[in-house]
Amino acid sequence: MSSNPPPLLRLEGVNKRFGGHVVLNDVSFSLAPGEIVGLVGPNGSGKTTTINVICGLYRADSGSIVFDGKPVHRVPMHELARIGINRTFQVPKTFRDMTVRENIEVAAYFGHADQRADVNALLRDIDLEAQADKLAGSLTVNQQKLLDLGRALATGPKLLLVDEIGAGLNPAELGGIAELLRKLAQRGIALIVVEHLMAFLGSITQRVIVLGAGRMLFEGSLDAASRHPEVVAAFFGEAA
Ligand SMILES: Nc1ncnc2c1ncn2[C@@H]1O[C@H](COP(=O)(O)OP(=O)(O)OP(=O)(O)O)[C@@H](O)[C@H]1O
Q: What does the domain layout of the chain look like in residue ranges?
């Protein structure tokens, strides 16, 4: 008898190509509720495409994606947001001419069919209570990223896909985001975090998946990944 809980997410043999270019090649992994996994790899290795196929922005050419016990690889993005998958973007997608509060309210309204988000609690979580009535377009880069997270959280996700949230942030801002992501995982939200900043990633998880040219090179601890020959070669070239 296995004591492992059933995975929240399971990818099995996922393939994706654009024209003749194979971008994901037999990607398979699982994620449990409340677990954080880092998705790392050199530029162009397929990290964002992986989260794009999980969130329904792109459709995988073959392979399966099972979420919460249901096959979801043909379910469109807006429907996936309703059943518990949401994501942030490398460039935050906020409504710049609406206030912070309105941005959260719109996401809460459209995002989740049967459970309304507590907007005030969410504003506290993302530390934007004091900015609630400011226009989103007036926020700093860090605040835009927090609002993008808040927009995704307003839909009540069980799985949150976080795409390069650390880029351009200072150490204090990175620390704040890391603390928030850890808190979300403690509440049971599973997170896939695409990131180039390894120290930041190491502060939220040890579990990483390394992609190289669309293929999974390694799955395990961040420390072991940094010593793995194929991973080192992918990042620094064959001679490394
Ligand atoms: N819509 C698309 N049409 C054609 N090619 C695409 C498309 N999206 C991604 N690609 C290609 O797929 C490959 C993987 O891109 P992807 O954005 O997933 O990489 P990444 O690992 O996230 O890179 P980065 O770290 O630079 O963000 C790249 O060669 C990219 O040019």
A: 9-84+157-236
Task: Report whether residue 46 contacts ligand 1, using a CB cutoff of 6 Å.
Answer: yes
Ligand 1 atom index nearest CA of 46: 18
Three-class SS of residue 186? helix
Q: How remote is the CA of residue 48 from the centroid of ligand 1, in Å?
A: 7
Domain covering 9-84+157-236 in this structure, CATH number: 3.40.50.300
23 CB less than 6 Å from ligand 1? yes
With beta carbons less than 8 A apart as the criterion, state whether 103 and 94 touch: yes
Assess contact for 29 and 209: CB atoms under 8 A: yes
At residue 115 the predicted structure's pLDDT band, cuts being 50, 70 and 90, is low
The response to whether residue 5 sits with its C-beta less than 6 Å from ligand 1 reads no
pLDDT digits (tens, 9 = 90+) for 164-188: 999 999 999 999 999 999 999 999 9
Specify the residue with its C-alpha closest to ligand 1, atom 29: 44
Contact present, 58 and 16 (Cβ < 8 Å): yes
List the residue whose alpha carbon is closest to atom 3 of ligand 1. 18
Q: What percent of the chain has pLDDT over 70?
A: 94
